[in-house]
Design brief:
With 195 residues, this protein is α+β, with helices and mostly antiparallel strands. Helix content is 39%, strand content 17%. It contains five helices and five strands; from the N terminus they run αααααβββββ.
């Protein structure tokens, strides 16, 4: 079994490393290293990552994604500063969740801006006293007229302070075992501000 990287894989590593050196590092160095990067700086970084396919890595090419293999994605993420890699993973993961579990209309509405990084995304799962156990979430989504009202608290959400939309794991009742029946609700900050 061959464990050496091939020439294409080494080229992907090198091009990602060069992007970081030339374009991402200067943005990061222009800000206080002890403070989170502001949204405008992160938006620039996300746009750079979108050019490399990192904001749509697991999405198929026929929907505008990069369709990267897990190995290629890992090789690219290794080149990113850790804080940037985590932010991009959270954003890309939200896009992948939406692709896999939303309607065609929702995909058309949200995915292009996530893929291009015109809008920053994140997912809210973890809650106080529940952790990341999705079947125990306490955040509720209740249908009222033609909308859902979401109430609850989430924590430890990468990109929450800079996101434009959040994919929130909500309970919509209990099953026969007393566990939460789940639904994910996309909350857009511009239409329904959250803190």
């Amino acid at each position: 079994m061959e464990f050496q990287l091939d020439s294409e894989q080494r080229m992907i590593q090198e091009s990602t490393r060069q992007m970081v050196d030339r374009k991402i590092d200067p943005i990061m160095k222009a800000h206080d290293p002890d403070q989170p990067l502001p949204k405008d700086a992160m938006s620039k970084i996300f746009a750079l990552c979108a050019e490399q396919g990192l904001t749509s890595a697991r999405l198929p090419e026929d929907v505008g994604g990069a369709g990267l293999s897990a190995l290629t994605l890992g090789l690219m993420h290794e080149q990113l500063p850790p804080a940037i890699a985590l932010a991009v993973i959270a954003h890309e993961g939200t896009g992948a969740r939406l692709y896999l579990s939303s309607t065609p209309e929702q995909r058309e509405r949200f995915l292009p801006d996530i893929i291009s990084a015109k809008r920053i995304a994140c997912t809210g799962n973890t809650e106080p006293d529940v952790g990341s156990d999705p079947r125990s979430v306490k955040t509720r989504a209740v249908e009222e007229q033609d909308a859902y009202v979401v109430t609850g608290r989430k924590m430890w959400i990468t990109n929450a302070s800079i996101c434009d939309l959040i994919n929130v794991t909500c309970a919509v009742g209990k099953d026969e075992k007393g566990l939460s029946r789940l639904m994910r609700v996309v909350v857009e900050r511009e239409h329904s501000p959250f803190a």
